[in-house]
Amino acid sequence: MSAAPPLALRPGERVLVCGAAGFLGSHLCERLLQRGCAVLGLDNLISGDLRNLVALQASARFEFLRHDICSPPPPQAEGVSRIFNLACPASPAHYQRIPVQTVLASALGVWQLLELARRSGARLLQASTSEVYGDAQEHPQQESYWGHVNPVGPRACYDEGKRCAEALMVAYAEQYGTEVCIARLFNTYGPRLRPGDGRVVSNFIVQALRGEPLTLYGDGQQTRSFCYVDDTVRGLCTLMESGWRGPVNLGNPCECRMVELAQRVLAVTGSASALVHRPLPQDDPRRRRPDIRLARERLGWWPEVGLDEGLAHTVSYFRERLGLRRAQRPQ
Ligand code: UDP
């Protein structure tokens, strides 16, 4: 049997999850409750959805408060021993409509949580992003790469906000000895993505299930590497328990062109939808793939769920959410 990690989560331990009603946050809360933790979930519900928490509300160890992390934390949050910060709009189509709230969630919000961590002696995990690498000129992306980000472009509110959050985390660790760790997440997908979220996986699945054309931006040759949510959540918990600061890439190194993703979604859904091309958004990164050697070596973590399997779980979720029956496979 392998030894317990240095900072193993203990049953009954009080854990704060910010962004709890979001796609990723709700899965994390579920996992922490399974581990026996007492979970306080916060969310301002800008992009979160209370429906994601319905199953969790039954647990006596789960409490939810509507709260914006840019404000001082509620009294219930004082004295927690761990903080996971997943609170930030993450879909480009969405965050570009609220750029001010997006920057502030990562700058002011993280500052508030760092102050809480400092007061409480808590360990804070920040969900950072592959977007800190911008339209990367190194491929695959290693943690040592400083990135290629347009600081005044349409994605700046997200990318620079997350970069600022990383800088703040490191500053608190250096100046005050605050316990921090940074995970750089690459395109996570799975059940509970919002149907109208605007990201590629949810768009393609919803379009395929409704028999509408799949909207391929640009020539569809740009790549992303998609990580199934269960793998991401396991990675977050492993990093939290490791005692290591990171930053560490958490993603699936299996790289996929958007045109190939569209074909896979059509195959998994059995849809006969056509593909239509739409203009490529400004500053859309061309290629993205994580180098996960650090995660393997330092955390013993790597993804286990392949794209077709993960898409199948995600499609089942959307079928139910949209109230659709299984589509007929074309003859
Ligand atoms: N994309 C697409 N069709 C869509 C939505 C997105 O082709 O309906 C492309 C988008 O241009 C990008 C990739 O899919 O190259 C991933 O976009 P997403 O918004 O999911 O996340 P990003 O990785 O860009 O933050």
Question: Describe it for me?
Answer:
With 331 residues, the chain is α/β, with parallel strands linked by helices. The chain is 36% helix and 17% strand. It is built from 9 helices and 13 strands. It has helices at 23-34, 92-95, 99-120, 156-176, 200-210, 229-242, 258-269, 293-299, 307-321, and strands at 14-18, 38-43, 62-66, 82-85, 123-129, 179-185, 188-189, 214-217, 223-225, 227-228, 248-250, 255-257, 275-278. The strands form 4 sheets. A 7-stranded parallel beta sheet has the order 3-2-1-4-5-6-11, sandwiched between helices. A two-stranded parallel ribbon has the order 7-10. α4 links the parallel β5 and β6 (179-185). The longest helix has 22 residues, at 99-120. The radius of gyration is 19 Å and the shape is globular. The termini are far apart. The model is unreliable at 327-331 (pLDDT under 50). The structure holds uridine-5'-diphosphate. Residues 91-92, 187, 199-200, 203, 215-217, 222, 224, 258, 280-281, 284 line the site of uridine-5'-diphosphate.
